[in-house]
């Protein structure tokens, strides 16, 4: 499978490539990536760049060997402008900055707005450069790594190919830094537990993601039918090979039948704010006209509001679905404490179900 016949590409570049010494931007490895992006544009391909590195780029201006979260946010603010200026100069084509939090992606209205903005930029020949908004984000609002952020972006803009640049040639059956007999996996058609075990832990000391997050990202992207590649961003030949239609790393094959976009968004982008445990006999509601009422609830876990995404599980821990809550956790807990007949009368006049089926994703292990 070649990227030369792909119309829309999402390319993710990590902090280790942006700031190899963790103290300021460096062009050392980015020239090859910028030339690759430029050539793709000359080939009439659209490109979205997801670039990490703002914290590492801004670290040089702060004399703090153990920075607090507040200092890291300040580093991100200072480093982001430096990083954007570098990409602007190296790519030498019009670029635009887009800073996102997970909350932006989890809100359906904002998600659609992001999609429309990026599409408008691409249609006008401008390269969107996406990064997590580290300056304002909190732990609750963070994606946490730009591998998964890039996969969510790729799904949002209906990308045809997704390329993650890292410090190894791709996914090996064991850590190539530790085992000389490690074998590179060139093609992966199914992402399962065996693949995750091969990924192991983080490799780079500069970035927040390792091979594990790249597999998570590949799983998100391939579910949307997006062919995904992990390549060595430190080697110029990786990009020459891609332009020649060759696979220089590991290729994860996109689903032949992709998930429906709204189901993909609910499954792979939204974050469950809480959990509702339902009766095992009621799991069939997902493929029928049956509704869930307060009588079907065994327990309510966590705190959530109307409109938040919640996880539906059974008493044995089986994950059934993710859905939009029609009731807050506070109200559902209150109703559960009341007499069952009273709870039904209290809840039914307003809604027929505790969740909305407008945004509902049945989970695979259900």
From TrEMBL:
Name any GO cellular component annotation.
cytosol
Query: Where does the Aspartate/glutamate/uridylate kinase domain start and stop, copy by copy?
Result: 8-232
Q: Which UniProt keywords apply?
A: Amino-acid biosynthesis, ATP-binding, Cytoplasm, Kinase, Nucleotide-binding, Proline biosynthesis, Transferase
Q: Broadest EC class? A: transferase
Instruction: Quote the record's binding site residues for ATP.
Output: 12, 166-167, 208-214
Pathway annotation from the record: Amino-acid biosynthesis; L-proline biosynthesis; L-glutamate 5-semialdehyde from L-glutamate: step 1/2
Q: Where in the cell is it found?
A: Cytoplasm
Q: Which reaction does it catalyse?
A: L-glutamate + ATP = L-glutamyl 5-phosphate + ADP
- Domain of life, per UniProt, equals Bacteria
Q: Is Ribonucleoprotein set as a keyword in this record? A: no
Which stretches make up the PUA domain?
275-336
Q: Which Pfam families does the protein's record reference?
A: AA_kinase, PUA
InterPro entries the UniProt entry points to = AceGlu_kinase-like_sf, Asp/Glu/Uridylate_kinase, G5K_ProB, Glu/AcGlu_kinase, Glu_5kinase, Glu_5kinase/COase_Synthase, Glutamate_5-kinase_CS, PUA
Q: Which residues bind substrate?
A: 52, 134, 146
**GO annotation, biological process:** L-proline biosynthetic process
Give the E.C. number(s). Answer: 2.7.2.11
> Which Gene3D superfamilies does this entry report, sorted A to Z?
Acetylglutamate kinase-like, PUA domain
The Gene Ontology terms for molecular function here are:
ATP binding; glutamate 5-kinase activity; RNA binding
What protein family is recorded? Answer: Belongs to the glutamate 5-kinase family.
Sum up the protein's function in the record's words. Catalyzes the transfer of a phosphate group to glutamate to form L-glutamate 5-phosphate.
What protein am I looking at?
Glutamate 5-kinase
């Amino acid at each position: 499978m070649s990227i030369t016949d792909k119309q829309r590409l999402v390319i993710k570049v990590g902090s280790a490539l942006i700031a190899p010494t963790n103290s300021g931007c460096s062009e050392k490895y980015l020239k090859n990536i910028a030339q690759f992006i430029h050539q793709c544009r000359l080939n009439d391909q659209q490109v979205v760049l997801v670039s990490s590195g703002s914290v590492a780029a801004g670290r040089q201006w702060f004399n703090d060997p153990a920075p607090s979260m507040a200092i890291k946010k300040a580093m991100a603010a200072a480093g982001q402008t430096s990083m954007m200026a570098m990409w602007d100069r190296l790519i030498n084509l019009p670029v635009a900055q887009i800073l996102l939090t997970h909350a932006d992606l989890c809100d359906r209205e904002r998600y659609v707005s992001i999609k429309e903005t990026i599409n408008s930029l691409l249609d006008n020949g401008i390269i969107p450069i996406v990064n997590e908004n580290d300056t304002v984000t909190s732990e609750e609002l963070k994606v946490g790594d730009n591998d998964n952020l890039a996969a969510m972006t790729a799904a949002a803009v209906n990308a045809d190919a997704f390329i993650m640049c890292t410090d190894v040639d791709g996914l090996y059956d064991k850590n190539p830094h530790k085992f000389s007999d490690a074998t590179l996996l060139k093609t992966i058609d199914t992402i399962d537990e065996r693949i995750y075990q091969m990924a192991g832990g983080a490799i780079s000391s500069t970035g927040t993601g390792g091979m594990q997050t790249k597999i998570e990202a590949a799983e998100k992207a391939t579910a949307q039918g997006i062919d995904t590649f992990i390549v060595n961003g430190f080697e110029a030949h990786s990009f020459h090979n891609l332009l020649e239609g060759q696979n220089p790393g590991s290729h994860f094959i996109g689903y032949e039948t992709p998930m429906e976009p709204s189901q993909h968004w609910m499954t792979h982008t939204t974050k469950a704010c809480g959990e509702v445990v339902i009766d095992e006999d009621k799991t069939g509601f997902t493929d029928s006209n049956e509704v869930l009422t307060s009588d079907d609830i065994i327990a309510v876990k966590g705190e959530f509001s109307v409109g938040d995404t919640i996880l539906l599980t059974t008493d044995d821990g089986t994950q059934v679905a993710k859905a939009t809550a029609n009731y807050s956790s506070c109200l559902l807990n209150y109703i559960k404490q009341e007499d069952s007949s009273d709870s039904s009368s209290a809840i039914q006049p307003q809604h027929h179900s505790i969740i909305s089926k407008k945004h509902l994703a049945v989970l695979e292990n259900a």
